[in-house]
Design brief:
Elements (H helix, E strand, L loop, with lengths): L1 H4 L4 H46 L3 H7 L12 H14 E15 L5 E14 L5 E4 L5 E9 L2 E9 L3 E3 L2 E3 L6
Antiparallel strand pairs: 1-2, 2-3, 2-4, 4-5, 6-7
Helix pairs in contact: 2-3
Length: 176
């Protein structure tokens, strides 16, 4: 059957077979890696999904990953966090994040996780020079996650040191 589809036969059949074989190995590798990594791997994927959503400035994905029960020590709830993210996207034309370290701690039930992250984040305000948002000790923060409907959701963010975002210091004073 395959030889009927490929007019030149031999040489192309070998390339096609090798390509399909490599694709099958690639798919099986990532499928097995997903199964073997368990909940820790799923939490890591969740964090990377959030990172990509922020870099892409995708407010819909950002809103989707925040729990309806979000509440932080700065007095923010889900609505105020989404508003702050939206304002950040309006302020910064580009945002780049490099996660330098990620420590994932799951509880015994694997329904809650606490993740300590160290990141470098650089934002470029419109018509201005890029500025560091997170770096070094100021780049360390903790997120608390919970499983809701079999999906990880963000419950809380806590910065270890006050950080400056959009010209405002975030720490004890809150996001807005």
């Amino acid at each position: 059957m395959l030889s009927n589809l490929i007019p030149y036969g031999g040489k192309y059949k070998i390339y096609l077979s090798a390509s399909l074989g490599a694709l099958a190995v690639f798919i099986l590798f990532f499928w097995f890696q997903d199964i073997a990594s368990g909940e820790t791997g799923r939490v890591r994927k969740f964090i990377l999904k959030g990172k990509k959503a922020i870099e892409a400035r995708n407010i819909f994905t950002c809103a989707d990953i925040i729990s309806m029960g979000y509440e932080d020590k700065y007095g923010n709830d889900r609505s105020s966090l989404i508003y702050a993210v939206k304002e950040g996207f309006s302020y910064y034309s580009k945002i780049r994040i490099s996660i330098e370290e990620m420590k994932i701690n799951l509880d015994e039930t694997k329904e809650h996780a606490q993740v300590e992250i160290t990141a470098l984040a650089i934002g470029q305000p419109k018509d201005r020079v890029a500025e560091k948002i997170l770096e070094g000790e100021k780049g360390r923060f903790k997120v608390k996650l919970a499983k809701e409907d079999k999906k990880w959701k963000l419950l809380e963010i806590e910065f270890y040191e006050p950080v400056t975002i959009m010209g405002h210091e975030i720490g004890e004073a809150g996001l807005i």
